[in-house]
């Protein structure tokens, strides 16, 4: 269960969702019952009937930054960057950021990149896997440029043409209704299925909800090159859990109720901040927690999640919670039944 090839599966290209469902909560929902080892087909708006009185949902309130910028080299060649750092400070030092860069030929250290009139960047450091450190300079801050001209950084498997009619839709639908704190380079996609109307129904059913923050970083999606998945290393990601969330989670734990994570990012934040008794420590920090089969969950009892890419750290995590063989069966059933996969796809509820 630790060999990377154990997490491979074949997915028809047509199963990769290119656009979101017409309505957020009209996605399909595959319910995985770990005790009975059974699956059932529901809709996401059925969620209040699938949970129990006293259950607690924990969501991620991170917000995706439109940090994808298009530019060119002084020689004229096109470049595309994704700004990965979004500090709170506004000083001159904050104008130098690590970025992920794509171009036909990688620029050398000292190269000048142009991003429209009056704004440029100088490559000050070359990292691994397409990472470069760029010092930005212009008539406005890099944060202003991102807000005014940046694009939402969709995953590469979602294809958009230059004048795609879906680009405007992406600005709304690739953010969750919980999104509040800017800092993510990708959406916590399990949260994309929630609507305000669904939240009211959950509340009426006696199901509570609290939030935390984990800013999804590029490292979450880096390919796993280790043949033994336990040797994979994730990049560090910022998380924050306030006192209200930490205190609220104590309730279900003390009553024997369930803490249900909405997304793998929530799992990683909660399990990082968990004390020995399963209680959550409030505060901020960074996590590089890699969850693989054999992991002992202290806080999370159930999980709402999307369907994940083969050989990914996210697939390791759901397999740690539900068991690798059961997840393989669930994915096989989902493919056979025409479920939509990945960021804009359908969801799974693991109970």
* CATH-scheme architecture of the largest domain: 3-Layer(aba) Sandwich
Cα separation of the termini: 21 Å
- Please give the radius of gyration in angstroms: 21 Å
**Portion of residues in helices?**
10-25%
Task: Please identify the top-level CATH class of the largest domain.
Answer: Alpha Beta
Secondary structure layout:
Layout: E1 28-33, E2 38-43, H1 47-50, E3 56-60, E4 62-64, E5 68-73, E6 78-83, E7 96-103, E8 112-114, E9 119-126, E10 131-138, H2 142-149, H3 167-173, E11 181-184, H4 196-204, E12 208-214, E13 237-241, H5 243-255, E14 259-262, H6 264-272, E15 283-287, E16 302-306, H7 313-322, H8 324-336, E17 347-350
Descriptive account of the structure:
It is built from 8 helices and 17 strands. It has helices at residues 47-50, 142-149, 167-173, 196-204, 243-255, 264-272, 313-322, 324-336; strands at residues 28-33, 38-43, 56-60, 62-64, 68-73, 78-83, 96-103, 112-114, 119-126, 131-138, 181-184, 208-214, 237-241, 259-262, 283-287, 302-306, 347-350. The strands form 3 sheets. The protein has a 9-stranded mixed beta sheet with strand order 2-1-17-16-14-3-12-13-15, with helices on one face. It is α/β, with parallel strands linked by helices.
Produce a short descriptive summary:
This protein is of the alpha/beta class and 351 residues long. Helix content is 21%, strand content 26%. The chain folds into two domains: 4-64 and 171-350, QueA-like (3-Layer(aba) Sandwich); 68-149, QueA-like (Thrombin, subunit H, Beta Barrel), CATH 2.40.10.
């Amino acid at each position: 269960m630790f060999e990377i090839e154990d997490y491979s599966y074949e997915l028809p290209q047509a199963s990769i969702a290119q656009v979101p469902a017409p309505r957020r909560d009209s996605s399909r929902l595959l319910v995985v019952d770990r005790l009975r080892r059974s699956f059932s087909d529901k809709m996401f708006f059925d969620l209040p009937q699938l949970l129990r009185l006293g259950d607690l949902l924990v969501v991620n309130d991170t917000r995706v930054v439109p940090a994808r910028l298009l530019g060119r080299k002084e020689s004229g060649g096109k470049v595309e960057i994704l700004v990965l750092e979004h500090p709170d400070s506004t000083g001159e030092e904050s104008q130098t950021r690590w970025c992920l860069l794509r171009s036909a030929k990688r620029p050398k250290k000292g190269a000048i990149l142009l991003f429209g009139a009056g704004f440029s960047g100088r490559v000050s450091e070359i990292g691994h896997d397409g990472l470069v450190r760029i010092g930005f300079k212009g008539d406005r801050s890099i944060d202003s440029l991102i807000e005014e001209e940046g694009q939402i950084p969709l995953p590469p498997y979602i294809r958009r043409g230059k004048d795609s009619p879906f680009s405007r839709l992406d600005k709304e639908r690739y953010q969750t209704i919980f999104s509040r704190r800017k800092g993510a380079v990708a959406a916590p996609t399990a949260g994309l299925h929630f609507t305000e109307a669904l939240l009211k129904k959950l509340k009426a059913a006696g199901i509570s909800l609290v939030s935390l923050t984990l800013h999804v970083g590029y490292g979450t999606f880096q390919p796993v090159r280790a043949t033994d998945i336990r040797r994979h290393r994730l990049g560090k990601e910022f998380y924050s859990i306030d006192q209200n969330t930490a205190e609220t989670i104590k309730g279900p734990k003390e009553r024997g109720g369930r803490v249900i994570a909405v997304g793998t990012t929530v799992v990683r934040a909660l399990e990082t901040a968990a004390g020995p008794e399963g209680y959550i420590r409030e505060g901020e920090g960074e996590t590089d927690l890699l969850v693989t089969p054999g992991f002992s969950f202290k806080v999370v009892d159930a999980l709402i999640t999307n369907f994940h890419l083969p050989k990914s750290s996210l697939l390791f995590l759901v397999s740690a919670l539900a068991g690798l063989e059961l997840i393989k069966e669930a994915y096989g059933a989902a493919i056979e039944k025409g479920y939509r996969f990945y960021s804009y796809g359908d969801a799974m509820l693991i109970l």
